[in-house]
Amino acid sequence: MIKSLFLLLCCSILLINCNTKTDVDDTMNSGMEEPIPNAYITEIGQFPNVINECSGLIKINSKIIAMNDGSTHTLLQEINPNNAEVLSTINVANTSNVDWESLQYDNLKIYIADTGNNEGDRETLSLYTIPYQLGSEILCTDTINFIWPDQTDFGTSNFHPYDCESMIVEGNVATFFTKNRSDLKTNIYRLDLTTEVITKGESISISGLATDAAEDPSGDVILLSYFTLDGDTFANKVSILTPSDGIYVLKKSIAIAPTTQIEAIVRTEDHKYLLGAESESNEGGYLYSLDLNEFYE
Question: What gap in Å lies between CA 62 and CA 55, rounded to an integer?
């Protein structure tokens, strides 16, 4: 009886200590070669139902624009970064949505990567270029259709290296970071936007499934990824990739929230980010903030 009361008291204390500021415990490090540091995230708010699977975020001046996954419409939503409310809806004309997965903004243009490929059987992927302007509709002016240069087998598979949810765009190059269910690495491909030639580059072991990327002012890439602890609980982290002699190398891995499936990241200030998470039901997902300043001191 005394032992039962003690266990009940411990569980109560644990629940009281849980709040919107979340970090991970040693379960994040299970199965990994060495422990990795933890970073706190803070919950900002819950999206409305229209954003139940946030898979992309961009910042244009002071505006934050979100992209929802798992839908056939061609809409983006401007959101309030202080409470996750939708402020307006933007239609992306002259596009189609097979599986939009990555959203980026560079040099006054929005880029959408239609590169989701869960079963590895897509024979055509697309990158849309959309000059940004204010209004309820924006027009895609350029579409590049491509395929991974090393993929020769397009049969259906649950374990393959050809899904992709992460991209950055800088100048005339779009860099893709694949989501490898086969080995938990990420393969890097670079697409020249001028010549439309895509080449395969380095492969990095991140021990996770890459799901979005953002550039840090240091020149690093903050690559978001996750893996499942028990099939239902998600353990998320960011891998800091730093450029070295023309390629990226893994600099550090940092664990973040372990429970929701976080699939979107955008930088708002130096080393500060917003994160978008999928919903665990038909309700809207969640918006979080992440501060990595302590890892750049």
Answer: 20
Q: Could you tell me the two tokens for 244?
A: 């070295």
Residue 286 has pLDDT above 90, yes or no: yes
Give residue 33's identity as a one-letter amino acid code: E
Is the pLDDT confidence value at 12 over 50? Answer: no
Q: Where are the domains of the chain?
A: 20-296
d(CA 188, CA 119): 19
Mark out the alpha helices in 1-113 (DSSP H runs): 2-17
Q: Which of 107, 109, 112 is nearest to 131 (CA)?
A: 109
Where helices occur in the chain by DSSP H, the ranges are 2-17
Which residues, other chains included, contact 170 with Cβ-Cβ below 8 Å and sequence gap of 6+?
A: 106, 215
- Give which of 214, 197, 191, 222 is closest to 104, Cα–Cα: 214
* Token couple for 145: 């259709």
Q: What are 263's two structure tokens?
A: 């699939």
CB 183, CB 118: distance < 8 Å:
no
- Distance, CA of 264 to CA of 76 (rounded, Å): 14
Of the candidates 74, 110, 105, the residue with the CA atom closest to the CA atom of residue 92: 74
| Phi and psi angles of residue 70, each rounded to the nearest 5 degrees, phi first | 70, 30
Fold of 20-296: Tachylectin-2; Chain A (2.115.10)
Closest among 128, 43, 53, 124 to 91, alpha carbons compared: 128
Residue 129: name the closest of 117, 150, 115, 144 by CA: 144
Give the separation between CA 129 and CA 117, rounded to whole angstroms: 20
Residue 89's alpha-carbon distances to 25, 29, 77, 139, 224, in angstroms, are 38, 40, 5, 14, 26
In angstroms, rounded to a whole number, what is the distance separating the alpha carbons of residues 154 and 209?
20
Which residue from 77, 81, 159, 173 is spatially nearest to 127, judged by alpha carbons?
A: 173
Beta bridge partners of 255: 38, 237
Model confidence pLDDT, tens digit, residues 235-265: 999 999 999 999 999 999 999 976 789 999 9
